[in-house]
Write a structure and sequence with these properties.
This protein has helices at 14-17, 46-70, 74-86, 91-104, 107-123, 127-151, 170-185, 191-211, 217-237, 256-286, 296-326. The chain is mainly α. It has one domain (44-239, 253-326). The model is unreliable at 19-36 and 332-338 (pLDDT under 50). This is Phosphatidic acid phosphatase type 2/haloperoxidase domain-containing protein.
Length: 338
């Protein structure tokens, strides 16, 4: 029989006490991915955060380019206005579906959506993220209002087609920002589902504003890009999650479901963008009297709605990938010695 030479006051080894042995990478205040950060917190992975900064910059650039072409050039205004006029076709029947969707967007909706996002973040003990999603919703909506009423204008380039600047769409910004806030605070395994539902709801809201002739397609696209930019900023600055880490040595952090969902969204976005852009280019080149394949205003309306859905799907796919990657701490989890 082996003798036990431990001092009488020493604790029993973990195996003897029935407790699992904690691997070395989980001790001494190290981050859970083996990468120590301030106060022992996980250190954020730098690569995905740099990508998030690039996405934010490109999204803001996209807002400006959308306004520059569709609002400040005669060709862009004509195509955008054709889509606006085309919404009158079948409006009575479509409005029965669109009106309830738009009625949801209100101050109460924003408060409830932000409150739900903050509650999820608090329950997950993500205090900083709770504050950041509030900044996301507030920042995106303030940005939209400032751009629409204080920064961007709408020159009168076409006779008979005048009016105030309506880019970006306020209703779409509200819907998209709340959906993105929920996506960012949701646990890793649920993010693909929330991304799909958020994209669907944002797309429905954007298209509904077209149905009601509240906005033109460019207004909705710009709103989605504003929210994409703010969502990417939050991904760039949010701390790495101590919850989004392996629970045992050697466990993978990859989320195949997220990549599949993001890939499908991007494929759908690419297909929609090709058809939408091709149709709008044809309209821009041929003039307002050519039928391709329907009356030009209906064609522009359908192409504009498809473009809105394409941009929305792409935005949520990108944010899903960014969130999954930036929530992951830097470094790899060492495997337990055998």
């Amino acid at each position: 029989m082996l003798s036990d030479t431990r001092p009488l006051d020493s604790p029993a080894p973990a195996w003897e006490a029935g407790r699992p042995v904690a691997p070395a990478w989980r001790k001494d205040g190290l981050g859970r991915a083996g990468a120590p950060g301030p106060g022992g917190a996980p250190r954020p992975a730098p690569g995905p955060r740099a990508a998030a900064v690039v996405v934010a910059a490109l999204a803001f650039l996209g807002v400006w380019l959308t306004w520059r072409f569709f609002v400040t050039t005669p060709v862009g205004q004509r195509v955008d206005e054709l889509a606006f006029v085309g919404a009158a076709h079948g409006q009575n029947r479509l409005w029965r579906v669109a009106e309830p969707v738009l009625d949801v967007v209100s101050v109460a909706f924003v408060v409830a959506g932000v409150g739900a996002a903050v509650l999820v973040a608090v329950l997950r003990k993500r205090w900083a993220l709770a504050a950041q999603v509030v900044a996301l919703v507030g920042g995106a909506n303030v940005t939209t209002q400032l751009l629409k009423h204080g920064v961007l204008d709408r020159p009168e380039l076409l006779p008979g087609w005048t009016g105030p600047n309506t880019l970006p769409s306020g209703h779409t910004t509200v819907a998209a920002s709340v959906a993105v806030a929920l996506l960012l605070v949701t646990p890793r395994s649920w993010r693909p589902v929330v991304a799909v539902l958020g994209a669907a709801y944002t797309g429905m809201t954007g298209v509904s504003t077209l149905v009601g002739q509240w906005h033109r397609p460019s207004d909705v696209v710009a709103a989605v890009l504003v929210v994409l930019a703010w969502g990417a900023v939050v991904c760039a600055v949010a701390p790495a999650s101590s919850l989004d880490v392996p629970r045992r040595p050697g466990q993978s952090l990859r989320s195949p479901g997220s990549h599949v969902v993001a890939g499908l969204l991007l494929m759908a976005a690419a297909a929609g963008a090709v058809v939408s852009v091709g149709t709008l280019v044809s309209l821009a080149r041929t003039g307002s009297t050519v039928v391709v394949p329907l009356a030009t205003d209906v064609t522009a309306y359908a192409a504009g709605a498809l473009g809105v859905l394409a941009v929305t799907a792409a935005a949520f796919a990108v944010l899903l990938e960014l969130r999954q990657l930036t929530a992951r701490p830097a470094g790899r989890v060492p495997r337990e010695p055998r």
